[in-house]
Design a protein that fits this description.
- With 206 residues, the protein is of the alpha/beta class.
- It has a single domain, classed as Rossmann fold (3-Layer(aba) Sandwich), CATH 3.40.50.
- 47% of the residues lie in helices and 15% in strands.
- It contains seven helices and six strands; from the N terminus they run ααβαβαβαβαββα.
- Helix 2 packs across helix 7.
- It is globular and about 45 Å long.
- It starts with a helix and ends with a helix.
- 29% of the residues are buried.
- About 20% of the residues have low confidence.
Length: 206
């Protein structure tokens, strides 16, 4: 009789041990690091199905940093929107010029030309936030190219006040396009933005 009790006790101990191991494995599998890695693998496996272009305008370099991180995640091509006449480096002069252009709906001429934009299926469009919305060079870009039927994904960098009207204005300028959820981040956080970018991309990429 004692032998039977001993065998039952051994079985109970073994079941408890393997149960604990299973929970430990599950916890490791669902850890933030592994979930982030799974998100990145999902993004990389799905993005080749469509031809992607990351196009952006950047003045200080913050939006350029985010654009490069997005491109590293989704692949595709990347193009910087550059104006024929560069913007001033002085902050006050820049703010004044941007305000004048926005109020007069001035569209600065672009040095950047994209000849085969019709071949892209998904276009990420990035910019800083000037005066609560997209800078006029981005308005020029959206006015010059027919993006009908394409999927547009906006992203922006800002000084702490969020995306403002930028995503709404991009949608208004692209009435025949599908505009997905955008991504906004403060300019001083761009160097460590990759986890947030991966989380955002995992939600919007099908």
């Amino acid at each position: 009789m004692k032998k039977i009790y001993f065998i039952l006790l051994v079985i109970i101990v073994l079941l408890a041990f393997f149960g604990a191991q299973t929970q430990l494995f599950s916890a490791k599998k669902d850890s933030p690091a592994n979930m982030e890695k799974a998100n990145e693998e999902q993004i990389k496996s799905l993005s080749p199905a469509r031809k992607i272009l990351v196009v952006y305008f950047s003045h200080s370099g913050s939006t350029r940093e985010i654009a490069n991180q997005i491109r590293e995640s989704v692949g595709g091509d990347i193009v910087e929107i550059q104006t024929v006449d560069p913007y001033p480096s002085n902050y006050v002069a820049l703010v004044m010029q941007a305000k004048q252009e926005r109020e007069s709906d001035y569209k600065p001429a672009l040095k950047t030309k994209i000849k085969n934009i019709e071949s892209y299926d998904v276009i990420f469009i990035g910019s800083p936030i000037w005066g609560g919305t997209i800078p006029q060079p981005v308005v020029t870009f959206l006015s010059e190219y027919d993006l009908s039927g394409k999927t547009i994904v906006p992203f922006c960098t800002h000084g702490g006040y969020g995306e403002g009207q930028s995503f709404t204005d991009i949608a208004k300028l692209s009435p025949q396009s599908t505009v997905l959820e955008g991504f906004a981040i403060e300019g001083n956080k761009v160097k460590t933005a990759q986890p947030e970018i991966a989380k955002w991309l995992s939600k919007i990429i099908e």
